[in-house]
Prior knowledge:
Blueprint: H1 2-17, H2 21-86, H3 89-95, H4 103-121, E1 129-134, E2 146-148, H5 158-162, E3 169-173, E4 191-199, E5 206-215, H6 216-219, E6 235-237, E7 243-245, H7 257-261, E8 273-279, E9 282-288, E10 290-291, E11 296-297
Parallel strand pairs: 1-2
Antiparallel strand pairs: 1-5, 3-4, 4-5, 6-7, 8-9, 10-11
Amino acid sequence: xxxxxxxxxxxxxxxxxxxxxxxxxxxxxxxxxxxxxxxxxxxxxxxxxxxxxxxxxxxxxxxxxxxxxxxxxxxxxxxxxxxxxxxxxxxxxxxxxxxxxxxxxxxxxxxxxxxxxxxxxxxxxxxxxxxxxxxxxxxxxxxxxxxxxxxxxxxxxxxxxxxxxxxxxxxxxxxxxxxxxxxxxxxxxxxxxxxxxxxxxxxxxxxxxxxxxxxxxxxxxxxxxxxxxxxxxxxxxxxxxxxxxxxxxxxxxxxxxxxxxxxxxxxxxxxxxxxxxxxxxxxxxxxxxxxxxxxxxx
Length: 298
């Protein structure tokens, strides 16, 4: 093995000895200057690329953190509104009546109870609707606040709410309209809804379900904002796998939000998790986080 190496070195020496001075100068330039420059450039490029990637991650972490704070504030707002709604004594008295009311009594309830109830709870413009669905057959419907529970018993989330034992249930609904009639004046867009069973004073007998709704574009304000980095976009994934985002985002020019999300294994980590993936040759970087309070991935 040693003799072979010596022969190889002698062969190189003979080869270089026979080269012209001009060729030797060129080779010297390549080995002494060009190769170190290439190596330095490669190292610098990698360092800059790593720095840019780190900065990109930090920026998007900040965006995600701001949205999580918005979500937390909206969760608190809707929960607080729910507690106010269920603690209204006059409203509870009406929902617990044990006989039919005449027209004068119903008008009194509408004027003195429902109107003040709406005014008080709708102080915040982000709250789209507060509705009380009751199964008390003696209660007259007073649109759009007091309604019969039979209107929502076929909803896919009704049984889930009943299983909560009075705890809140969060549901993203494509539409919160009940009749489909123009008179409802409900925007045809998704809503985040806070749903909670309420009971009679014995705390055992079911009385109805409270629903508080907020337009999804208000609940996830950063996600649906057009003022974002054109190379990144927030996406919301509901518990049933439905995907919600800003449809006009430039990020979705090559591939839609659903296609991108289908390439990611969603995490149950409440912190941040980074995922790199490719779709049809296009590289993507996803930064995701799970929000257990409302059971969505962001």
